[in-house]
Input
Amino acid sequence: MAGLELLSDEGFRLDGRRPSELRKIRLRLGVFDQADGSAYIEQGNTKALATVYGPHEVLGGKGKPLHDKVIINCQYSMATFSTNERKNRPQGDRKSTEMSLHLQRTFEATIQTHLYPRSQIDIFVQILQADGGNYCACVNAATLAIINAGIPMKDYVCACSSGYVNNTPLTDVSYLEESQGGPVVTVAMLPKSEQIALFKMDNRLHVDHLEQVLEVASKGCKDMYAVMNAAVKEHVSRMAKSMECS
Amino acid sequence: MAAHSDHVKHHNRICVPGEHLGLESEYHTGPGTYRRNGSIYASLAGHLCSRTEVETELPALTVLQQEIQITVPRQKSLVTCKVVSITSKFCRCDILSVESVPLTETFRGMIRKEDIRATEKDKVEVYKSFRPGDIVLARVLSLGDAQSYLLTTAENELGVVLAKSEAGVPMVPTSWCEMTCPKTHDKQLRKVAKVQPHYIAYAS
Amino acid sequence: MAAEFKTAQPVEYYKQFLKEEVRPDGRELGEIRSTILNVGSISTAHGSALVKLGNTTVVCGIKGEFASPTVEEPKKGYLVPNVDLPPLCSAQFKPGPPSIQAQVTSQLVADTLLSSNLLNYEDLCIKEGNMVWVLYCDMMCLDYDGNIIDACLIALLAALRNVRLPVVTIDEDTGLAELSSTEDRSLNIVNQFAATTFSVFDDSILLVDPTVEEEDLATGLMTVIVTQDGRLCNIHKPGGTPLSTDQIQDCIGRAQTRAKEICSLIDDTLDSIER
Output
């Protein structure tokens, strides 16, 4: 392992977490008024924002309306001040295009696309501060925004990453752990039906370890699901109360 | 519709997408639910309720949302639209609301000359029926081409509900095909809707 | 059914309210929406601020970078403001190159910075004629509900006052810059300013702090930017309904009061953070 000791002898990580511990999560639904659905999520120091517009008419440019299902359009963008080095282009570079495509594929798998033929749903995600696990934060935020918008989907999509250091799998890797060159596995999962919507891996990992790492990642997804679920239920009951009051 | 749903049972339960609600042998799927492998699951976050429309049938499970349900124009839905432009063959309009739910973004619609009225279709002239700026009540005929929804006003209750004269005041309908400006007493031709109170409320 | 009336005849809908001297959101004609400010929430930026003006939300992040100064002004660093209105913030903005409105707002902010004498640009000098700080001020709208200029300027001001730049020393032998990881300094803001936007409804009624609906219906818009001590900094009135000198004077008066409020809001927020 280069330079940094990611896992101390006592079994703690650099930020004091245990290997299977998620970072502190803070989230909120319905943060903005203009969007049909919106959500904000903080996973440790990674802060992401998602808004959903639609279903609306398919507007010129790229997509042609599909006669049997809705077009899902995702745009991933990183604020210029979100990283340590200033980013010159918030979106449109290869990395963001790849992210956008991953997000689009992930949500095509879960949104009930056949309900809104010839329409389009826009999902915009914005990273305000990046500290590893950007894709995960985006997926989680987008799921909450879609629920907030009231767009029917089969299940939640929860995403979590995991790494592998010193024969120990780590959950929810931070930027520091990501950038050390070890393997990182990102999984987006439908937690109720235990299906995997997206699986992505960076760097090499021995096949024998894959199962272990995957298990940790899906455990992370389920933990994430518990937190998101509690927030959604709370939001729904709060909305119900405010309706009764008015 | 409301008259039939006399057996609505609210299960005091909040459900979230992907949550298992019941078996297909016990319930039907209603809005906000879907079926998979013989079971019914929620696809929205909200309150669960089951509704029996006919005694002999199974109750339908529905997930009710607090926030306004999103709407898109569907076939046969009643829409309010604003005329944008007219040609000799058709009239283009923006759909503003569907079944009296306002849309946040408009959809494009088109009323063809032959869909303007039900009788004497060959004598219809678009410019004698609509002018840009009119508010029109119409029904969605079909999803049309890729560009727009096809609408029709070929019913007595459908047509122009609000039109402004050149003086800028709303005109008063004087017959099914004519409106008069109360200020200048100028007469203009329109395909006027026979306003039904339960269709529309602001026309008066 | 009020909702239907509003979509079909927005102007008449507004007139009904304005006759009673109130606005549909319950405000009086001259009332400004509540302003909430949060400073320093983004730790990857050198300075940051988030402003909520009613529903309008703008986040401003400032990143400092090294650059060479111009030959004419070898001691001066510079600010590069940029306003972004991404499709995320409203359905009216589409993906693609920056909209005209975003570019106009960016330019207005740049002009105001230039003319306002906000800070002493020589503070940004690291080595004369060789290296200066350039501060990229990116303002991004997250929720667009009108009056973007006011919100952007509050965010910009608060973020600039939040800026902590690491102290730089230049190694005499190698000529390389070294950042101190322990020492940092803030900027010396000399002259603060704030904007107040007015919209003209139906060629006659002046509304302060318009929402997006009011902006769409407006027959004219005007933004008055004044400094903390009440001096006029910039007036932006892009055409529209002509206004009389008296009306403009009145607007300037109101903008002066507003500028004081905003500056004390920024002061209070920064104080509460430091404590």
About this structure: The CA atoms of residues 96 and 102 of chain B lie 6 Å apart. The mean pLDDT of chain B is 82. Chain B has two domains: 7-64, 77-199. The first strand of chain B starts at residue 7 and ends at 15.
